Amino acid sequence: MLDLADELGLLAVPGGYEDPGITDVGSTFVTLTDNAGTYEHDAYALGIPEETGNRKNLLDFVDALLDLEGLVGEANLGPAEPYVPALFHVTIVGSFYTEDSENAWPADVPVEEGCVELVVDRFADGVAGVYIAEIEGVETRVSVVPDLPGDSCT
Fold first, then answer.
1. For the whole model, what pTM was predicted?
2. Concatenated DSSP letters for 70-121?
3. Are 141 and 132 in contact, with CB atoms under 8 Å apart?
4. What is the pLDDT of residues 100-143, one digit of tens each?
5. Which of 30, 31, 96, 97 could disulfide-pair with 41, CB 3.0 to 4.6 Å?
6. Farthest-apart Cα atoms in the chain, separation
7. HSE, side-chain direction, 13 A CA sphere, residue 137
8. Could you tell me if 111 and 92 are in contact, meaning their C-beta atoms sit under 8 angstroms apart?
9. What is the distance between the terminal CA atoms of the chain, rounded to a whole angstrom?
10. Distances (CA, A) of 87 to 50, 51, 105, 131, 143
């Protein structure tokens, strides 16, 4: 993977990525680390329109990652398994009233704001999402986002 990144010029302090203009497409962020340093790439609306130069190099790298097995070889990968984070970012969003909520916070799970461990099997449809919890007698929105590798909880 790092060989391809080096070949595409991504193992260097990135220059600016040209702006394709206003679109409804988000940005692509890639962080690469080798023994010489860490390189953070941020390109707005990557893939719009036909890419050239450093934008094409970054897009080619991202596209190659979509076929990780083809890029690094099956023997270099472990068995596929779902990622289950150890921590979740829990944010109390504010008051909210609803007659019927499909995303009710589990009654036996205390609501704690910050980076917290949650018992995954207590949440019916997975943990990430927005829930309604009763906090001090007020129905309150609670947002839960998994802590992914490289996020601030770890």
1. 0.59
2. HHH-GGGS--------S-EEEEEEEE---SS-SSBPPTTS----EEE---GG
3. yes
4. 556 889 989 999 999 999 988 898 777 888 898 988 888 888 99
5. 30
6. 59
7. 0
8. yes
9. 24
10. 39, 37, 17, 17, 14
